[in-house]
Design brief:
Blueprint (H helix, E strand, L loop, with lengths): L6 H5 L1 H9 L2 E9 L5 H11 L5 H14 L16 H6 L6 E6 L3 E7 L7 H8 L4 E7 L6 H12 L4 E7 L8 H18 L3 E6 L23 H7 L5 H4 L3 E3 L2 E6 L2 E7 L4 E2 L4 E5 L4 E9 L2 E2 L3 E2 L3 E6 L10 E4 L5 E12 L10 E6 L2 E7 L4 E3 L6 E2 L9 E14 L6 H4 E5 L6 E10 L2 H4 L9 H8 L4 E6 L6 H14 L4 E5 H4 L11 H20 L3 E5 L5 H9 L6 E7 L2 H7 L4 H6 L21 E4 L6 H14 L6
Parallel strand pairs: 1-3, 1-4, 4-5, 5-6, 25-27, 25-28, 26-27, 28-29
Antiparallel strand pairs: 2-3, 7-16, 8-9, 9-15, 10-14, 11-12, 11-16, 12-13, 12-15, 17-22, 17-24, 18-19, 18-23, 19-22, 20-21, 20-22, 23-24
Length: about 625
Amino acid sequence: MAHATNDLAATDIEAYLAQHERKSMLRFITCGSVDDGKSTLIGRLLYDSKLVFEDHLAALESDSKQVGTQGGELDFALLVDGLAAEREQGITIDVAYRFFSTERRKFIVADTPGHEQYTRNMVTGASTADVAVILIDARSGVLTQTRRHSFLVSLLGIRHVVVAINKLDLVDYDREVVDAIEADYRAFADAIGLDDVTCIPISALRGDNITEPSDRTPWYDGPTLIGYLETVDVDDESVAGPFRMPVQWVNRPDLDFRGFSGPVVGGTVRPGDRVRAVPSGRESNVSRIVTADGDLDEAVAGQSVTLCLTDEIDVSRGDVLAAASAPPGVADQFECHLVWMAEEELLPGRPYLMKVGTRTVTATVAQPKYSINVNTLEHLAARTLHLNEIGVCNLNLDRPVPFDPYADNRDMGGFILIDRFTNATVAAGLLHFALRRADNVHWQHVEVDKDARSRLNSQRPALVWFTGLSGSGKSTIANLVERRLHEQGHRTYLLDGDNVRHGLNKDLGFTDADRVENIRRVAEVGRLMVDAGLIVLASFISPFRAERRMARDLLDDGEFIEVFVDSGLDVAEARDRKGLYAKARRGELANFTGIDSPYEEPEAPEIHLDASGAISPEQAADQVIDHLRRTGIIPT
């Protein structure tokens, strides 16, 4: 290695490893604005901790001369900035995790990006951290990104903050500069509820106040950075809380063993403890705590174990085993903080997948109550959220989930939202509380149900959804289908895209968010009409697959019939009876589907109609009627 190794490691490796194993672990994050010196600091920590091997040091010396930013001197940032793009630009893009240790503690540090567009990466790194080291360039002071990261640190529940005022060598180790920055930061920290803040003046490049007190800052008598990290007391609040274990796997290797495996994310559990399976509410006692190394007398937060119970109760993946005397809440509606992490804006009303603990459900986000200006902490009116914006929203889930408020338990109250089609993570969220209205609204039993209404109408109810570009012929074909069904004595209703905007949806425009809400409302109306036993014909551009999928999911199997009226853009634009394409081409009509707003074609529609002119509207209507007969919607 580049420095002398530990004497104990050289003389008694087993004793050294045993000593190393007993050290406590601290996870911390470095964050701040671009070029504040985060990577340089971590490189310095690795170097000073004797974790740079000779070949790595030789490569560092070579790289520092070729691509370094320190005039040929060692550029410690290159120990961390592994991506080629980062080395070329001198910035951090990805979250880099590094391990190092000292004589007193082991550390995992996440070096997170400073650019605003990579705030989502910072949230990822902060989600498991105990301490945040926020770097500030002494020349620049507290910047917008400093405030943004500090707000996120507070939001994500990190209570121990080190403000490392870096690059003192570039301001001649001026105490007045440090004092002014500290006063500015503490004023902001007080406003966001950060009360455990320690300010340390450093030079990551020169090593001032990193591992040893610097002679160049005789006016500073506080801890060094390593001294603080080695001694900070991080009370694990989750250990002190009630027992929680999200079930990842039902472990059944043979007929004689049945256990429930998962991470303990709160409290302590022992054999004999009474536990409750949530959300079912069934209870039992713990008979064994099983691990690969044998049974335990106790398991605490941070361990992954298998619990065996004395009773054969029904527990599945996604359930939570919890202390019977203090179970988590169960709800399907919440208020939450949401950090939007996708390039595409939040679309209120669109269904997303929500992963909370080991359970995955479908969630829709209501229009944000407000977004937060991280500079002023002002609450701003918002219809949606854009990349890196933070807002407070209500969530509606398709089924109840066990939860604790994020402030009480990060694992039980934290979640992510996932796009259902791309599987990309679009947001991270923190649950505040369940909405009381969820407890006050219940299903009312009715005597006359959908089956009874269907028998009276001598038909099976269905929602026939016509989708296609403006001018494709959707409304014409839907009209013909309804007229023929009416002539045959069937009960129908036609929901047309233009007609509903005169009443039900007259408050909506044509942004993506408004289009999502337009289809959500129509789908809910369609569901009610299907419940009334009707054959509902819906003619809407409905450009997004996600909303057509949402409409399908509202109904029982076989009740949603997607009809793709496929004319192609050229044919639809050539028809242009309403002159809408011409307005869109002239820039007089924004967000017009097919011109400056996308249309996502159905991937597997029940009926695909060639509306380019190959068949007449009457022939297209015949195809729809034939399909209704074949599927038993109407009698043959």
